[in-house]
Structure formats: structure tokens, C-alpha cells
Amino acid sequence: MIWIKEVSKSFIQGDESIHALTNISLHVKRGECVVLKGSSGSGKSTLLSLIAGLMQPSQGEVRVDGKEISKLPEHFSAALRRQKIGFIFQKYHLIAHLSALENIMTPLIPENLSLHVLESKAKAVMEQCGIAHKAKMRINRLSGGEQQRVAIARSLINDPLIILADEPTANLDEKLSHELIATLEKLKQKGVTLLIATHDPLFFDLGFVDQIIEIHNGELIV
User: Fold this and answer.
1) Its domain of life (predicted)?
2) Cα(113)–Cα(173) distance, rounded to whole angstroms?
3) CA separation for the pair 175, 179 (Å, rounded)
4) Is 133 part of a structural domain of the chain?
């Protein structure tokens, strides 16, 4: 499902080259749940962004469901994200002046579906995430936990094969964190491949996690 071969990523900051990832190789099988364990700044978010095609590696190869996403032009990688990948961002990246329903529909707008189909899909995932009653409320009127559920629902609207979650419990209390984990477990049971970047110890002793991989200073600890 996800193949990463000898991937490195560097950024230029002023006159300095910052090495975010160094020679990373990783294989995630279809339907697996893999936790990327590491502190802030370890390279977890960069790795997720490479898998999603949001950036390209400085060297190496990233394949998602058989396609080498690391060499796709942006419009093709964007199409692949819409078709196969759901991304749960740490800071949600919701549009404050839109309603919860409108935010959830946004990933599918480029697909030119009818408004009726978009609303139907969005309402179905809102029901799944327990926020159907908040459909018409603007994002800036929702609590942090409700906004996280909207972000999760948005990641599910394209019925993805893969969910990438970047520090998904960072802004949640313990109760909401356990609710999120229960949602992720249900997705795993449906065959969705999960890759979760976190330093939250709640994820380190879960029965449905297949691999825990530690990353430190841009390198995998083996």
C-alpha cells in the first residue's frame, strides 16, 4: 500500500540546509495501522506530507497504492489524494466562516458532483462521527472537540483507502482522545490503512496497532 525507499528531505533556511529526513525506508501493508512515534520536530509531519504528495522528497521514492507519488505533477498527486487519501491535520485547517457541512464537502468540490450528492455524502460521514446536529453551524462557533470531528469527517468523505493523521489528539482532552481512537479502530476494522504520527502515549499500547516505528532527528530508530 505505502512503500518508502531511501527517502531524504532537506530544506534551505537562509544559508543553511536543514535535513528533515535522512534515508528513510518503510513499508505499510494494506489495512495496517502504523504509529510513527517521535517528539515534535522529529520529522513525522514531513514524512506524512511526502506520503500525501504535499511535497516531494529531495531523493528516494514514495509509492502509494502502486503509483510513484514522488514524481507525479501536482494536479495528478492532488487527484490521487482526493481518490485514496484522507488527511487529519493537527491544526484542523478548517475554513472558519463556512459551516461544518460546507467544510466537509470541500475535498470533493473538484469532482463536479451535484450539490445533492455532496450534501448526502457529507451528512453520512457527519452521522458516523456524531456531529450531524452541527451541520449548519459555522466552524468558529464549534468547540475544539467538535472541530476535530469535522476534520475527521472531512477526511472520510472520499471513502479513502488510507488515513494519515498528524498528532490527532494534540488539541483534545482525554475523553475526546479515547473517542477519536475508537473511531480510528472502526476504520481499521473496515480495512482502511492508518498511519498516525504522534507522541501521545495513548497510542503505544493499542491492540489494533500493527507497528510502532520510532523516528528521531529525521531517522528511523530500528
Assistant:
1) Bacteria
2) 36
3) 6
4) no
Within-domain flag for 136: no
Least confident of 16-25, 87-96, 198-207: 87-96
pLDDT at 222: 66
Tens-digit pLDDT profile for residues 180-215: 899 899 999 999 999 999 999 999 999 999 999 999
The domain in which residue 186 lies consists of 2-95+143-221
pTM here? Answer: 0.88
Three cell numbers written together for 109: 468540490
Structure letter (DSSP) for residue 204: G
CA dist 197 and 171 (Å) reads 14
C-alpha–C-alpha distance, residues 1 and 193, integer Å: 8
Residues 6 or more apart from 201 whose CB is under 8 A from it?
none
- Vertex 203 angle, CA 66 and 56, to 5°: 35
